[in-house]
């Protein structure tokens, strides 16, 4: 039982650091550096995308047309929303909602 508390503590600390370190780095850093600006600009959407990728279940063992349709339709929605909104974070959120909608309906 104590291992569960340790795991929860480690996960909580990791989540906290993921959210706090960009704020600390952004406040203390010289933002005139273009490399740092580009890293901080895309850090949030990259974290969202990595969480999404890690939460997608493994591909099915047998080929399924419906699974392929869901995947490519959701990717199309992500591309279209990125085209219209020009924001990676909004596009990923819309794609997650679209894919989750397919999962809950079918």
Strand content: under 5%
Provide mean pLDDT, rounded.
75
Structural class by helix and strand composition: mainly alpha
> If you compute it from the alpha carbons, what radius of gyration comes out, rounded to the nearest whole angstrom?
18 Å
- Helical content stands at over 70%
Largest sheet: none
Which stretches are poorly predicted, pLDDT < 50 over at least 5 residues?
none
Find the count of extended strands (DSSP E, 2+ residues).
0
Number of helices: 4
Tell me, briefly, the overall form: flat
Separation of the first and last Cα atoms: 37 Å
**SSE string, helices as H and strands as E:** HHHH
Can you walk through the features of this model?
This protein is an all-alpha fold and 106 residues long. It has 4 helices and no strands. Helix 2 (34-55) runs parallel beside helix 4. It is flat.
What's a quick, concise take on this entry?
With 106 residues, the chain is mostly helical. The protein has helices spanning 2-28, 34-55, 65-85, 88-105.
């Amino acid at each position: 039982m104590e291992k569960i508390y340790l795991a929860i503590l480690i996960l909580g600390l990791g989540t906290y650091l993921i959210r706090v370190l960009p704020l600390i780095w952004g406040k203390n850093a010289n933002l005139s550096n273009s490399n740092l600006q580009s890293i901080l600009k895309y850090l949030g959407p990259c974290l969202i995308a990595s969480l999404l990728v890690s939460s997608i279940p493994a591909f099915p063992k047998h080929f399924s047309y419906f699974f392929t349709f869901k995947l490519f339709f959701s990717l199309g929605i992500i591309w279209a929303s990125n085209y219209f909104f020009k924001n990676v974070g909004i596009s990923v959120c819309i794609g997650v909602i679209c894919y989750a909608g397919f999962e809950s309906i079918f």
